Each structure stands twice: as structure tokens, then as C-alpha cells.
Amino acid sequence: MQAPSVEEFQTAHAALRNQVIRTPTLTLAHALFRERFPADVQVRAKLELFQHAYSFKARGAILGIRQLTPEQRSAGVVAASGGNHAIAVSWAARAVGVNASIFMPETADRLRIDACRKLGAKVTLVSDIAKAFDMMLETEQSEGRTIMHPFEARHMTLGAGSCGIELLEDAADSDIFVIPVGGGGLISGMSAVIRQARPGAKIFGVEPVGADTMFRSLEEGKPVTIANVDTIADSLGSPYALPYSFEISRQNVSAIARVTDDEIRSAMRLYFDALRLIAEPACAAALAAVCGPLKEICAGQKVAIIACGSNISLERYDRILGQ
């Protein structure tokens, strides 16, 4: 369970150069941020919400689909997702001319469902995310499609690593890196790249209290499954960790910080008030951690965070902030 080498990350990053957007890294210097931040901190945010398909997932998805054999392209791909990965796979499949079948929970944001369909994917709605994963596996067998897993795949780790390479180019002197955690694809790739370049840096993952799968897995020393996912940050709501992304994270991550839904809501409001950004809950998680459980640790430090994506309808955004 070794992470890709430096050379493999660099090769993937080079392959993505003309495929994805080189998203900006912004110093969060607005007075509204300073009122909430730790003392004497500098915070820089990589804005992956401006990526193709509006999330970092586009990086790994296009890598995965471009590595398919001609036979696999002909058979098509299948994925299960609550939203961001579904849109990224739909986008990448359309870019390469591959048929995509996507399974999504009925509770998924309508904007995400519609986005996949507009990109040409076949979307099937099922009762919940666990059923979506079951149907993904069944479809692999019945239709011969290739699975595009949302996090447990080398191409997803490599895609996330390319995001880490860019963040290091923009904020190499950071003392602390704060990265959202869903299943573990983003933090596995980013932490591996950052740890190789900055062995002394602190790397924190961020999970919702109601979906703290990686936190519990690191405590137990093995991937675990949680009985219930209960958070507004559905993009971070994986009910389990898996061996590959877990082991890479275990080797490189300093610790996992947990944030409440109210802390996430507060960070969503802060992004809007200071920058007029409509951030979905997962996108606001890293900022929530800096203003919350990591506040004392970040004081006086240079901190880099990820605004990982934003696929959310105005209706759901307003409903979450009204709760």
C-alpha cells in the first residue's frame, strides 16, 4: 500500500496540464476573515471550486478515463456518488467519448443530478449511497463496465496529488495544510505529495463529526465502517474507509480534526460574506477547522487550505443556512 512516487505524481501532473484548470490560490486577507481567524495567522486557500465540473474530482476522473483500454472505453464506465464525483465522471466521460452510467441517492441535490444528465450520463436514482455502491458493483458484472471509484483508486490519488503540487507551487512555505476528507482520495494524494516535499509540515484532515470515518480508522489502525452518516456535508459523507487511501493517509497525515455542522454553516456564511462565494458544506470544511478546532494550533502560522468544490443548488444552500 505505497503511495505513488514523486516521479509518478509529476508524470500525472504533466498529463493533466492541458486537461484541467490551474486553479488559483488566494490569501484570505479580508477583514471579515481576520475577525474570525487565529491571531497572527496567514491563510491561503486553493480554490478548486473553479475546477472543471466544479471540484477537484475532475483531476482523477479524467486520468482514470484516459487510461482505459479501447475495449474498456467501448463498454463504458460506472460510478456511484452523491454528487461531485458523479459530475466529474460525467464530464470526463463526455470529454473522451465514453458512455457513463451513474448511480446516485434519491436525496442528491437536483442540481447535481441534472448536471450529470446534461453531460450525457445515464443517471439512476436509488434509495441511499450504500445502495448506489451495490448497484455500481452489480453493473460492473452485468454490463462489463469499468468502475470509476470516487476515492479508492490510484488515478484518484494521482489526480489529488496534482492539486497538491500546485498548492506547493503557490504556498510552499506553509507550516500547516488543512484538507477535507470524504473517502480519502483527496487527502491521500495531497498528503503524499506534501509530505515528500515538506517532511516537517503538519497535515490535518477535516471530517464532519457525523461522518468521521477516517478519524475512527486512524484511531483503530485499520479501515472502519460507521453505522450512520449524519451531516450536511454530504460530499464528505463516506460510510467507510478503504485500504489503499487509508494506508497512504495513515503514513502522511498528522491528525484528523472534526467539525460540527454548525461550524461548517458558519464557514459557508464567511465565504459568502467575505468573498461572495457560494460554498457547499464540504468546500467550507477546511475553513471551519481553522476557525474552530485548529484555531490555537494555527495561531502565528502560515496555513494552506483547500476549497475543494461547490456543486450546490441555491435552494439547498438557503435551506442549509436556514437550519
Automatic annotation (TrEMBL):
Source superkingdom: Bacteria
Gene3D superfamilies per UniProt: 3.40.50.1100
Pfam families cross-referenced by the UniProt entry: PALP (PF00291)
The keyword Signal is annotated on this UniProt entry: no
Cofactors demanded by this protein: pyridoxal 5'-phosphate
Keywords attached to this entry: Lyase, Pyridoxal phosphate
InterPro entries given in the database record: Ser/Thr_Dehydratase (IPR050147), TrpB-like_PALP (IPR001926), TrpB-like_PALP_sf (IPR036052)
Domain Tryptophan synthase beta chain-like PALP: 35-309
PANTHER family for the chain: L-THREONINE DEHYDRATASE CATABOLIC TDCB (PTHR48078:SF6), THREONINE DEHYDRATASE, MITOCHONDRIAL-RELATED (PTHR48078)
Name this protein carries in UniProt: Threonine/serine dehydratase
Lineage: Bacteria, Pseudomonadati, Pseudomonadota, Alphaproteobacteria, Rhodobacterales
